[in-house]
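hey so i finally got around to running both of the ones u sent me last week. sorry it took forever, my laptop kept dying halfway thru and i had to restart like 3 times lol. anyway pasting them below in the order u listed, first the sequence line then the structure token line for each. didnt double check formatting much so if smth looks off just lmk and ill redo it

first one:
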Amino acid sequence: MDALADVATASPGRILLVTGMSGAGKSTVLKALEDLGWEAVDNLPLALLLRLLATPDRHGQMSDRPLAFGIDTRTRAFDAEEIVQTIKQLREGNLLHVRVLFLDANMESLARRFSETRRRHPLALDRAASDGIAREREMLSPLRRWADIVIDTSDYSTNDLRRIVRQRFAGRLRDHLTLTLMSFGFARGIPRDADSVFDLRFLSNPHWREELRPLTGQDPAVGAYVERDPGFAEAFERIASLLLFLLPRYRAEGKAYLTIGFGCTGGRHRSVYVAERMAERLRGAGHAPQVVH
């Protein structure tokens, strides 16, 4: 910890540890962050982090760029419990605030990716990829529990993941709560990234109106139909009041990322409209939500 004196005033405004399951997209995330102006370093042992932060650039200046560094089970002397304890000590001592991004995916998606690319899983060089995936998930479980944000990439393409990274990390300030409002359809399952979910299937469904069916919640006719439901106004106000109460408390507790899901049956009408309306309401109260449909 001797290097802490050198980095106390020189560390980047944002430091992000990117970790997770092999095949879940760590390289894609680091490259996307680099494109956003971050300094990105892969497979950096945590013991070298302080030394890196205390190293000036070739002009002799200390970098003020945000730093993302990747760690996974291939990193030398990898120990998830030790990494968690080190990060915890840095936070509790107000020395460095390292946030943790964990990339996950289900067994089927990870196994398929290794099969399609003909790569061998780093923990299963001589056996089925599923064995390595199961072993790696157990090894990484302390980091997943500790992570500030978990992104499940099971249903994401490479371009989808890059888009998510741009939305969440472009131009964000240290200790800023990144708020995402997401619409979805229960017919395709609850989003794995959602921290809280509101079920809007109690509202009248525009799908059953033939003239509204091909439209979306971003069309005025659909919005007008949803608002005519007798339960809409009170439900919307109660949800808005709850979020306006909770958001400052999440921020005060240091939560960096919050995703609120609004779901209806198909994810096309009611959930889209409410997510858009709620974003307007929250912006009017001084928040800066992003909307993902």
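and the second one:
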Amino acid sequence: MFPRIDLHTHSDCSDGLLSPESLVALAAQRQVELLALTDHDTVSGCGPASAACAAAAIRFVPGIELSCQWREREIHIVGLQLDVADAALLSHCSTVLARRRERIHAMTQRLSRAGLPGQELAALTLKAALPTRTHLARALCRLGVADSMQQAFERWLKRGRPGYVSAQWPQLATAVQRIVEAGGIAVLAHPHRYTVSHGVLRELVGEFKAAGGEGIEVSLSGMGPADADRAAALARRYELAGSTGSDFHEPDLPWRPLGRFAKLPDLITPIAARLAP
């Protein structure tokens, strides 16, 4: 039996629903042995999660998932085992938080012009410590504008819809640099979700590696066999370690269960092997 690990999870410090402590309690129920908290653009939950993991005898990895831009596309980089007190990283997160809040204001203004209660949506969304489109989608559901999260995105929030505003994230090389300079390991998140050709994806991975990236997610909830094979091929081609995780956000999403078995394809070095004991 392979050890159960999860190196990609989210709490309510970003767009998850569980507190860091509740997330760790669920991880303990699922017999997770190695857990990283990788909230979007914040490390605020790592302290509580670390303490809860210590009490539950779970090995904890402080992490983050940084939003960045590459050729006008939004890309996510997971940082593992970083210094959560690093000044440059914290400054970077503060800058991104300000951009997130500005984006929510702009999106709710557009929704107001479309006839929706924009001010009320803004008030609900901006209650979050780190507001995201996910929080805005939840607000649309709460006010009865949408019947589901999927409908909220499809009707109002995705690209080309009335409430969409493009994000202005830092460049990919900057995000990787922030992670590396904070002592962390940079991992390219969910490569199968980027809607690009195989050739462009190879270019992305090559530039990520050149910027200092060390890993790529090879085993992730929602990856089909073809996606996993493609990610593994990229890992081998660019000599990147393989990471595994759930991208867990909430208990009611059965296709993203917390806790993953760390079984990786042949000739893939586990990213966990590079983490300090």
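quick thing i noticed on the 2nd:
Strands lie at 4-6, 34-37, 59-70, 73-80, 185-188, 215-220, 241-245, 260-261.
anyway thats it, ttyl
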